[in-house]
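The methods section describes the discrete structure representation at length, but only in general terms. Each protein is reduced to its one-letter sequence and a matching series of backbone shape codes. I believe one specimen quoted in the main text would settle the matter. An entry of this sort, consisting of the sequence and the corresponding backbone structure tokens, reads as follows.
***
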Amino acid sequence: MSFENLKGYRTGYGESIDNPLSSGAFKNIADRNGMQSRMAKLRNTYRWADGSVIDFSKRGSTMGKSGMVDQYILENPKTKETLILVVDPYKTDSTYHIPKGLIALTKDILAKEIAPYLNMIDEINKSADAFANEKEQISSVSNFIAMNIGITPFIDRENIIKVMTDTQASNDLKSYLFGIYIIDKFYALGKNLPDPKAFALTKMKDSFHKFQKLHPEVKSGNIKINLNE
């Protein structure tokens, strides 16, 4: 979730166009997954000193030494402290540092932030009919993952490709199973379970078996065969 090779505080880092933090988000603009991943790293590497999440929504641009750089106006929601973080999205740093006024995201802070979503996934998995009753909850968790980490790290092609490409199955069913796989892999990682891929696959199979009993009228194509291979 965080920038690679992150070190401690460095004077002036990210404070001026001469010394920007280089996120690399636009280093290859054709790679949308890469862009989303680098932007997620920017959001997830740092927190305010009190552990509060940073709002990166206020952004402007200006000319730097070798091209355009972004200037994020960051406001602490509790203290109302404001600072400007200068970011070069076209380059990457070999070593990342902590800008003045911020701290690095820690495991304890992260655990508190994701706890409500892990609890939500517990409730989804316990639901008598998650397909019918938990779509909003699944969407909420999926959106959190997409915005803060990105969906790509949770996709294991070998486990879901045959399900997602089954032309005889309902699109609603395929979307449901895809969402279940993503959130349960996130759950396994958040809980430090030994094999997140296997856990997510088992949960997807369990969800499908429950779905079949409750919704036999929905077209499931060859998913039963593909999930039991």
